[in-house]
Records
---
Amino acid sequence: FGITLFNDIFVKKISKIIDGEFDTIFVDTEKKSQNIRKKNPIANVERAVKENIGKSYLKFYKANDLTVDAAENFLELQFKNEVRNLGGKNILVIGVGNIGFKLCLRLIERSANVEIYRRDTKKLNQICKLINFIKPAGNQSRVKPFKFASNRLHKFDIIICCAKGTNIIRLKKINELNKDVILLDIGKGMFDQNTL
């Protein structure tokens, strides 16, 4: 089972209860913040667990990185019989927060043609510049901003949704998409029921 904790006090209490009850306890090492206005907004779960777990084995990981790995591996398997694999694929990534950003960079590194969408166009353009700046120098692929108004969903081989919102993709006709498109929802219910 999993527990989401944002407070060191609760981490310590829960740690004492579960210590020794489980052979292995997996701990997300990302620092969390519940309320940035409080004096000590960041809970250091890793430290609190280390200080209070002595009997169980602790395995530390980054949940977002596992998600990025899983998405990349899934897509790689979809094209395992193609020589270029993800290279040259037209990919749309909707939502470029932590997961979307990391996944986008990996796809660019694999020479995919990536377009990204984020509601905040100022941040969208900054993220495009940043990814294009930090990608390997010899890589010719470039990430570009996507505008929904342009209605070009049919050109994509893969559409990946990483945003928090729901029902972002609403299609009037199925032919708005490439007939072989792969839809990957890493967000929370990105495709409305009619679209599915």
---
Amino acid sequence: MIRANKESFIDNGFQHFRFNYQLNKRVDYEIFTQAQFNKQIRITFRGLLGTGLRYQFLESEKGKAFFGMAYMYEYNEIKIVADTISKFNDHRMSAYLSLSAQPFSKNFSISNTTYFQPVLTNFSELRLSSQTSLKFVISKKLTFTSIFSITNDTRVPENVPATYYSLRNGIRWKF
């Protein structure tokens, strides 16, 4: 949250939990849940629960790659106008590709996960999202991170952009 003079500039939150159970060397069973709100794009609440399989199709010293396919139930509360909230639920497919690599050394890593999430009853209503992370280890205790996220949603309220993105930079200190 960022506020100045009682005006809110950024007001959002996001929690995502995922549990993987290894079925064999390459296949995992997954279950996940998520809760979020985002005042800027008028999501007063979004909750979801999903389950599916994840397949590791690449593993090397320098990286890994996964493909996942899941069913996802999603509940939304979206502010349409000042005091009007639209409540709806969707059944979605959630397909994703996840790549991670340490191309130069263990002190530098890059990862990306891209999701394709159409509504099962209407594939033209879909959400595409992608998150790319960079991590530079500066010392044993100090790490720099940069995370770029972008989402395109075909079903948004009027006057809300279909595509939105964020860039977050941070420094981590291990105690």
